[in-house]
Amino acid sequence: MKQPIKGFSKLSKEGKIEWLVNEHFENPEEARELLKEYWHSNEKRQQLHDDFIENTMTNYFLPFGVAPNFLINNQLYTLPMTIEESSVVAAASKAAGFWLKRGGFKTEIISTTKVGHVHFNYAGSFETLSTLFEDWKPKFYEETEELTANMRARGGGILSIALVNKTDVLENYYQIEARFETCDSMGANFINSCLEQFAQVMRADIELRTDLSAEDRDLQVVMCILSNYTPECVVRAEVSCKVEELNDDKDVSPEEFASKFQRAVRIAEVEPYRATTHNKGIMNGIDAVVIATGNDFRAIEAASHTYASRNGQYSSLTHCKVENGVFTFWIEIPLALGTVGGLTKLHPMVKLAHEMLGDPNSETLMGIVAASGLAQNFAALRALVTTGIQKGHMKMHLFNILNQLEATPEERDAIVKHFTDKVPHHNLVVSKFCELRGIPVPKSGVNKDK
Ligand code: MEV
């Protein structure tokens, strides 16, 4: 049985690798070699990556692709996309090309406010707490003046502070709810620092209030934390054109396409099973740009899905209408993104991604990311309601199988040609590969399709 290790974090990087490969691998040599093979050849760059997190062993590569021809608010962008899934970049590029000829994407920032809470217990009366809060409120602003100075100079800061009574859902539970404008930064550190300062004010003040009863002084701060749910930091992206302009290489009329497409969106609006997959496709486009631009994709995911459930049932993030012969398709999504701070100036590829986009501010980036999500959803639905998604998907899947098989360029060409008009299921590709090499088909080589 494996034993826990004490003091792992204190070991050197080499020491950690030695422990890891000896403890967890049948062939430590091979594991060690692979871990080191993925080190950056430039020591300084490697050090940078080592320092991003704790216990770094090596790097984990994801492809960095680009999707050109995104016309967003009449500006042409090439989107950086970091994602492991085949077909996503191709789909984004295809949708961008489609809408490029039809006016492109239009985006609008609906709001940019973020929220944080001091969650606390209070056993006294709400009346006393309300009076205490009125005393605390100016102090919250005063005691955070130093913290907020830079943000205020940039036009941001604390927008409002309120006391919220949550005792209807949990006994003795209250919140100090603050709303913030964090300009071009995602703002997590700024918000959390302000909230912790509020808590200090509360603790210090209650300590001194010997005039109050024991019950009215019974206050415990549970935690101070921003909320990743940002329903007031929302962007809308839209595409639209006349129905007749939806003509394409597909075998359906524009009217039939518009009607089937609208129906597909409607299904995602009312059916959570479909909404989950539908929104997953949207997140393919969102996350890829969010990761490439060094933003926190977990926060974006969490907020998006809460937003998608805001009316009590998980539903589609995109919507579609056909009115007076005009097809309109749009997304509304909370995107708390930063273009300063965090990884944005640290990670060389993130810096490159920002430069590629013309060093956008956070509002412009919100529009770009929303457009990417909308494009992805458009591409997915377009394929789903016409040819089905497997055709495009399987082509990329074929390349992945060929890489796995370590096919030579000649073998690749022959196999790609062979599958031009056939669906490249894993077992069929392996069989064809073995046939070309004149080797028997291995039993483990079949039925690996997702
Ligand atoms: C696959 O990653 C995403 C799709 O399933 C999205 C969808 O079904 O809309 C194609």
TrEMBL record:
<dbReference type="Pfam" id="PF00368">
    <property type="entry name" value="HMG-CoA_red"/>
</dbReference>
<dbReference type="GO" id="GO:0140643">
    <property type="term" value="F:hydroxymethylglutaryl-CoA reductase (NADH) activity"/>
</dbReference>
<protein>
    <recommendedName>
        <fullName>3-hydroxy-3-methylglutaryl coenzyme A reductase</fullName>
        <ecNumber>1.1.1.88</ecNumber>
    </recommendedName>
</protein>
<dbReference type="InterPro" id="IPR009023">
    <property type="entry name" value="HMG_CoA_Rdtase_NAD(P)-bd_sf"/>
</dbReference>
<keyword id="KW-0520">NAD</keyword>
<comment type="similarity">
    <text>Belongs to the HMG-CoA reductase family.</text>
</comment>
<dbReference type="InterPro" id="IPR002202">
    <property type="entry name" value="HMG_CoA_Rdtase"/>
</dbReference>
<comment type="pathway">
    <text>Metabolic intermediate metabolism; (R)-mevalonate degradation; (S)-3-hydroxy-3-methylglutaryl-CoA from (R)-mevalonate: step 1/1.</text>
</comment>
<dbReference type="GO" id="GO:0015936">
    <property type="term" value="P:coenzyme A metabolic process"/>
</dbReference>
<dbReference type="GO" id="GO:0004420">
    <property type="term" value="F:hydroxymethylglutaryl-CoA reductase (NADPH) activity"/>
</dbReference>
<keyword id="KW-0560">Oxidoreductase</keyword>
<dbReference type="InterPro" id="IPR023074">
    <property type="entry name" value="HMG_CoA_Rdtase_cat_sf"/>
</dbReference>
<dbReference type="InterPro" id="IPR009029">
    <property type="entry name" value="HMG_CoA_Rdtase_sub-bd_dom_sf"/>
</dbReference>
<dbReference type="InterPro" id="IPR004553">
    <property type="entry name" value="HMG_CoA_Rdtase_bac-typ"/>
</dbReference>
